[in-house]
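Treating backbone geometry as a discrete language has practical consequences that deserve illustration. The amino acid sequence and the backbone structure tokens for this protein are reproduced below.
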Amino acid sequence: TSTRRGDVVEDAVEALLVKAKIPFVRTGSHDQGEIARRFNVSVRPTPDFVVHEQRNVLAAMIECKIANDGGTARDKAARYRSLRTEGTRLGGIPVVAVLAGLGWKRTRDALGPVVRDTDGRVFTMQSLMAILETQPFPRLAGLAAN
């Protein structure tokens, strides 16, 4: 059931990116090697979404996390530190968080580090549309082929 719950967030992000015609790849266990080769992403597992400008030019990484308790949120927050390190290694690629669940109310050691590691690019299901107003997404809108 956790996969289905996680897919709710990822499905919403995917629908938003498709509607805005923003080019992306929704990653999974089947394409880890392809993402590493195509975008030079070395963090494993790869982020849930890699957003790109041209076929092989990475523009952003999106990671979705659901946490229904504070301990889980704290543990999942560490993932964003590794993504930030990877984004820095790749020349300053922004990391975006889409969070759901009551666990993220734990601010000091869960939400706070995520906000830090994403430079404030943190969204919930309720604020998801605001991603489209956050760089680099406005300049990517309309670039994806139908």
